[in-house]
Amino acid sequence: MTPESRTHRLAIVPGDGIGPEVTASALDVLNAAEATFGFTTERETFAAGAQHYRATGELFSSDIATRLRAHDAILFGSMGDPSVAPGVLERGFILAMRQEFRQAVNLRPVRLYPGVETPIAGLTPERCDLVIIRENTEGAYVGRGSTVHAGTPMAVAVQESVNTRAGIERVVDYAFRLASVRRKRLTLCHKTNILVEAGRLWQETVTDLAARYPDVETDYVHVDAMCFHLPIAPERFDVVVTDNLFGDIITDLGAVIQGGLGVAASANLNLDGSAPSMFEAIHGSAPDIAGQGIANPAGAILSLALCLAHLGEAQAACAIETAVVAALGATAGQRVGTRDLGRQIADALAHVGTPDLPLLQGGSVMTAMTLAARS
Ligand code: ATP
Predict the structure, then answer these.
(1) Which of 272, 207, 217, 209 is nearest to 239 (CA)?
(2) Are 165 and 191 contacting, i.e. CB atoms less than 8 angstroms apart?
(3) Strands 185-190, 217-222: parallel, antiparallel or unpaired by DSSP?
(4) What pLDDT score does 185 carry?
(5) CA proximity to 48, closest of 78, 9, 87, 8
(6) Distance CA 338, CA 353 (A)
């Protein structure tokens, strides 16, 4: 690898609420990772979110899009505030960015880390290590539909779902690539018995692509059955691929299983290199705890790890995951501030790989992502 390719241009979008707090912790960890693993970043911070929108009216404007596009990846805090009507920032910034930057894959690891409390009785970390791949730009989230006779007893609302072979194929192919470097098992989650048109296209695509990945075993689970199996038998799954709407729902279930919103990370991946991918903790802006310095930064820090894995810095990514696990284990049951936990994780990085802190074993999504990005 040339030294040039180890300089990564990062756009930082802290956003609203706890977004800036957890992002500051992630940047503490990034500084430590650069010092330990020998790569560098050039960072530009962007003003965006509720306050910026109230002051300027700007959402995902063409100016912001052009400036963001010049970066290799985007680290995103969170967006949303009670002062802005629900949906304005979500549709006007986040969904707009996903579409414009063709972030076709939403990747969410569901891993229960040792020391993290799960509401699922008897669940152990060894049994819970899977990745959900959600289609991120199509389905019911394209915003197509219409209402006639609105506000009357005859009102009719039609909400369409758009599913294209090309859109499904790029996501399913990525899911196969990921599965082929993990435990080699891919599960399609849909509702093919009821949503027959979309379901057929998804199933056909999986069946067709399976021929290219003969070492990956495939199976199928209806989304309602998934809500039953995921909490009680997550060990059944390695990589789960699903559409936008079902993915939205089952990934939140996954976050509950792995111990809550504070520890859940995500990646929004552009697969064709035409625009940057975006990395964010799955929690929202949490206005109820914003400004108190008590938000858990683990999800944001693990999202940074996903970002580094995607940029080819697998060693740093795996080390960050290990350091997060060590810090979560060491602080289990204690109240630790956002910045303190971040600093603890940053400090632990230098010890990863020593007898004091062996590299976390298991089917790390970090290594798999780096390999899948290259294949
Ligand atoms: P959004 O619609 O933006 O997702 P929301 O209010 O539905 O917002 P969150 O902002 O994620 O969802 O907050 C849900 C709950 O989880 C809140 O009580 C919040 O305090 C808590 N929460 C979210 N993130 C964290 C975190 N990192 N650490 C601790 N608690 C959190």
Answers:
(1) 217
(2) no
(3) parallel
(4) 97
(5) 78
(6) 25
62: which residues sit within 8 A by CB, 6+ positions away?
Answer: none
Best probe residue, ligand 1, of 256, 283, 296, 334 (max atoms within 8 Å of C-beta): 283
Amino acid sitting at position 32: A
Q: What percent of the chain has pLDDT over 90?
A: 82
Cβ 15 under 6 angstroms from ligand 1: no
> Ligand 1, from 261, 263, 339: best to mutate by most atoms within 8 Å of Cβ?
261
* pLDDT tens track for 135-144: 999 999 887 8
pLDDT of residue 362: 55
Residue whose pair of structure tokens reads 């693990």 in the numeric block? 302
CB of 286 within 6 A of ligand 1: the answer is: yes
Instruction: Tell which wins on pLDDT, 1 or 266.
Output: 266
Distance 14 CA to ligand 1 centre (A): 15
Q: Could you give the strand order of the β-sheet that contains 239-242, starting from the edge strand earlier in sequence?
A: 40-45, 7-15, 73-78, 277-281, 265-269, 105-111, 129-135, 239-242, 185-190, 217-222
Task: Kindly state the average pLDDT of the residues 9-38.
Answer: 96
List, in order, residues 6 or more apart from 74 with CB less than 8 Å away.
10, 11, 12, 13, 68, 276, 277, 278, 279
**Residue 144: its pLDDT value, please?**
85
Query: Cβ of 330: how many Cβ atoms within 10 Å?
Result: 13
* Model confidence pLDDT, tens digit, residues 182-197: 999 999 999 999 999 9
Res 38 pLDDT > 60: yes
d(CA 173, CA 239): 12
pLDDT confidence of residue 1: 45
Map tokens 């400004």 to a residue: 291
